[in-house]
Specification:
Elements (H helix, E strand, L loop, with lengths): L1 H9 L13 H4 L1 H17 L7 E5 L5 H12 L6 E4 L3 H10 L4 E3 L10 E6 L8 E4 L2 E2 L2 E4 L2 E4 L5 E4 L1 H17 L1 E10 L9 E4 L2 E3 L9 E3 L2 E2 H10 L3 E2 L3 E2 H7 L2 H11 L4 H12 L4 H4 E7 L11
Parallel strand pairs: 1-2, 1-4, 2-3, 4-10, 10-14
Antiparallel strand pairs: 5-6, 5-9, 7-8, 10-17, 11-12, 11-13, 15-17, 16-17
Helix pairs in contact: 3-4, 6-7, 9-10
Bound molecules: S-adenosyl-L-homocysteine.
């Protein structure tokens, strides 16, 4: 999974209608603007310190960063922008959108400064391991194709995800700041096979065309919360993306935007439905915040 995804992201921009999948920031500017508003509010309540940086993990096309930074800049935030991005193709896509960003290969390389950090659909792309009756399930070659070597009730673990969350949380505990982690997943650890492949906006076979399809799994937010608090961060309650965006005022944002662009009212309403609707992204996607003990919990979680 690690090798497949490294190749997959290194060789293409998978986002958008012509690609394999569409993410929330690509649905509407409102998503990134509300992320920016939540970070700006948290930063101000922390006393508007001068040293934090905006950091994003897996920023895709840079759309979320551009929308969030527009709001952060207008709130007076003047900090640097740091991206953790391993894909050379996506780094090239991000450069013109966020021209003065700094790029890193890993979370450990982020500067020792307070963070206003966002990761949208980053954790789901990190590799998992699956176990059946305590034995790791592996991929073998059978008759020229690939197959799983065992079946049964599956338990998933993601050491790579635990490491990423631990690195973020330890950074926050040491240097201050806040992190918003947004992804599809579940609130409680439970057995089940959530590994999936997506190609051209449809679910595809996991073992066909390795490296040519987006391989992801659902994020176990109970495991995320446990890793984060073990590493010294404060952890918010988990909320659905729909509830979070509603509490941050997505309806008011759509009204404000449609006053300036009356012909786009339908587009803004359709975006709210897509981002917040329980049958669309609103319930499957969840949001959790991690923060330093001396930073406030961001808005939208209670
Ligand atoms: N956040 C963006 C893109 C999500 S796709 C959006 O919401 O549109 C996943 C992103 O994570 C891509 O930018 C991909 O290149 C990056 N990525 C995947 N695995 C990574 C890894 N191990 N380290 C750093 N970036 C990674």
């Amino acid at each position: 999974m690690e090798a497949c995804n490294a190749y997959y992201y290194a060789t293409r921009d998978p986002l958008g209608a012509a690609g394999d999948f569409v993410t929330a920031p690509e649905v509407s500017q409102m998503f990134g603007e509300l992320v920016g508003a939540a970070l700006a509010d948290c930063w101000k309540r922390a006393g508007a310190p001068a040293d934090p940086i905006y950091a994003e993990l897996g920023p895709g096309r840079g759309t979320l960063a551009a929308d969030a930074l527009r709001v952060l800049r207008s709130s007076g935030f003047a900090g640097e922008v740091h991206f953790v991005e391993t894909s050379p193709v996506l780094r090239e896509a991000q450069k013109p959108v966020v021209p003065n960003a700094h790029w890193h290969d890993s979370i450990a390389e982020l500067p020792e400064r307070p963070l206003l950090l966002v990761a949208n659909e980053f954790l789901d792309a990190l590799p998992i391991r699956q176990f059946v009756a305590g034995i790791e399930r592996r991929v073998t070659v059978v008759g020229g194709g690939l197959a799983f070597d065992r079946d049964g009730e599956i338990v998933e673990l993601s050491p790579a995800r635990d490491d990423a969350v631990t690195a973020i949380a330890a950074h926050l505990a040491k240097n201050g700041g806040v992190a918003l982690l947004i992804d599809y997943g579940h609130e409680r650890t439970a057995p089940g096979d959530t590994l999936q492949a997506v190609s051209r906006h449809r679910f595809a076979s996991i073992l066909e065309a390795p490296g040519e399809r987006d391989l992801t799994s659902h994020v176990d937010f109970e495991a995320v919360a446990a890793s984060a608090s073990k590493a010294g961060a404060k952890v918010s309650p988990l909320v659905t993306q729909g509830d979070w965006l509603q509490r941050l005022g997505i309806d008011a944002r759509a009204q404000a935007l449609s006053r300036a662009n009356p012909d786009r009212l339908e587009e803004f309403n359709a975006a709210i439905q897509r981002l917040c609707g329980a049958k669309e992204m609103g319930a499957l996607f969840k949001v959790i915040a991690l923060h330093a003990a001396d930073w406030p919990q961001p808005a939208g979680f209670a």
